[in-house]
Amino acid sequence: MIIAIDGPAASGKGTIARRLATHYGLPHLDTGLLYRAVGAAALERGVDFADEAALAGIAASLDVAALDAEALKSGAVGEAASRVAALPAVRAALLRLQQDFARQPGGAVLDGRDIGTVIAPEAPVKLFVTATPEARAVRRHRELAARGEAVGFEEVLADIRRRDERDSGRASAPLVQAADAQVLDNTTLGVEESWQAALALAERAR
Ligand code: C5P
Prior knowledge:
By secondary structure, the protein is of the alpha/beta class.
């Protein structure tokens, strides 16, 4: 069983994906981490964000087993990730790895922006998890504060809007809802309610 979870930044898709993976006993891949790792390496090595070939080279040589989720969660890395994610050669370099993960024999849960549309269009369970930019900014702002990153709310909201625009507006695998995805808008839902709603949708689709 492949479970594909897509949605914009800070929609809660990651939490839902992790819990679904635990619930069904499936391996989970947060595909945003792949783009974050490429973005972080580019920042670290001072690679020009216009140098598509160099960035694709970084993507092709990623050591997925060594990805450190905590170190990759900062706002600056998220911004770098969304820039490198707009480059077709970077996406191409990460395609096979994601497809192989999705198609392992027992099934898998993947979350990202293009899982239901590009990586695993055949997935029987597809959720599109979303919420208003304001609701997502409240969550992200709280998360960053908990990590000790003191950023103003307005700045977080502006970041979210810029990322939405870049992720939805790019030509290569933009963030769009798959025609056969079930939408979960959790703007007014708490974490637990959002999880219950996601589980009900997954149970119905599988
Ligand atoms: O989900 P997360 O915020 O960690 O993703 C970081 C960035 O990686 C996103 O803004 C998006 O541009 C990119 N991404 C993508 N396709 C995916 C997952 C993430 O383009 N499947």
